[in-house]
Amino acid sequence: MDYLNAFLCGGILCAIGQILIDKTQLTPARILTGYVVAGVILGALGIYEPIVQWGGAGATVPLTGFGYNLAKGVSKAVGEKGWMGVLTGGLTATAGGIAAAVLFGFLMAMLFRPGDKR
After folding, report:
1. 2, 32 in Cβ contact below 8 A?
2. How many whole angstroms separate alpha carbon 55 and alpha carbon 110?
3. What is the mean pLDDT of each run of 10 residues along the chain (118 residues)?
4. How far is Cα 92 from Cα 70, in angstroms, rounded to an integer?
5. How far apart are CA 6 and CA 10, in angstroms?
6. Which of 3, 49, 60, 117 makes the best surface tag, with the fewest CB within 10 Å?
7. Global pTM value
């Protein structure tokens, strides 16, 4: 059942993004940024936690999950370090994902020689 919930949750998030692409004038970059901001806001309000409990990886892997982890990290760091946690908490909580994205992006660039399509 966990796999089905993850599939449904991730599918719903992707379907919302596709509807936004098809029905609005928003660019994909703005939609992606909106997903991160929505994850931060929903995480800060405590609304995204039940979605994570139900959807598992379907909720934590998309960009809304990245925003949720930012909010969760800031909240934890503020509790431990006070207001200094506002500046450090989000980066500490998401450092592994950011480092992996940079590393794998670099490896793919080395392997496949990216460039402009002409």
Report:
1. no
2. 35
3. 93 94 93 92 91 92 87 88 85 84 90 75
4. 9
5. 6
6. 117
7. 0.76
